[in-house]
């Protein structure tokens, strides 16, 4: 079993930055895909950024390109989402997710991922 714990969310003003962290513990895998999803009230959960383990493949949603950066620290088994120039429309609960099968590319849908964190709230005021 794998446990994912997100942290770093909070209340910020438009234009501010936040860095989310996702720490993994439990069973380890030689290859995986990690994704950061978000879900705003009344909306479906959407992928905002994803990365294969060694970074050969990355993905960013159009709405966050140039503002968000996904990275990882393999030694700490932690994945980060650096969020700059935050906008009110970035307000959502952010989740990290892990896929441990067929890990050659980033996958886009919630059903493609095997493990989920509990989420962290990001609120951006105007």
Question: How would you summarize this macromolecular structure in one to three sentences?
Answer:
This protein is mostly beta strands and 126 residues long.
Q: Characterize the main sheet.
A: 7 strands, mixed
Strand content: over 45%
**Helix coverage percent of residues?**
under 10%
**Assembly state (oligomeric):** single chain
Summing up helix and strand content along with how strands pair, one would put the structural category as mainly beta
Distance from first to last alpha carbon: 40 Å
Give the total of beta strands.
11
Explain what the structure shows.
- This protein is mostly beta strands.
- Helix content is 0%, strand content 51%.
- It has no helices and eleven strands.
- It has strands at 2-7, 10-13, 18-26, 33-39, 46-52, 58-60, 68-73, 78-83, 92-99, 115-116, 120-125.
- Strands 2, 4, 5, 6, 9, 10 and 11 form a seven-stranded mixed beta sheet that branches.
- Strand 4 and strand 5 (46-52) form a beta hairpin.
- The radius of gyration is 14 Å and the shape is globular.
- The protein starts with a strand and ends with a strand.
- The relative contact order is 0.32.
């Amino acid at each position: 079993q794998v446990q994912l714990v997100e942290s770093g969310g909070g209340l910020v003003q438009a234009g501010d930055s936040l860095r989310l962290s996702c720490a993994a513990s439990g069973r380890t895998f030689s290859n995986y895909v990690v994704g950061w999803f978000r879900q705003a009230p009344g909306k479906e959960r959407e992928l905002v950024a994803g990365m294969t383990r060694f970074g050969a493949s990355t993905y960013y949603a159009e709405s966050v390109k140039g503002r968000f950066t996904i990275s990882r620290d393999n030694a700490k088994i932690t994945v980060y989402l650096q969020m700059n120039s935050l906008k009110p429309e970035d307000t959502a609960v952010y989740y990290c997710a892990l896929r441990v099968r067929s890990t050659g590319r980033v996958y886009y849908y919630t059903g493609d991922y095997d493990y989920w964190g509990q989420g962290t709230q990001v609120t951006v005021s105007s």
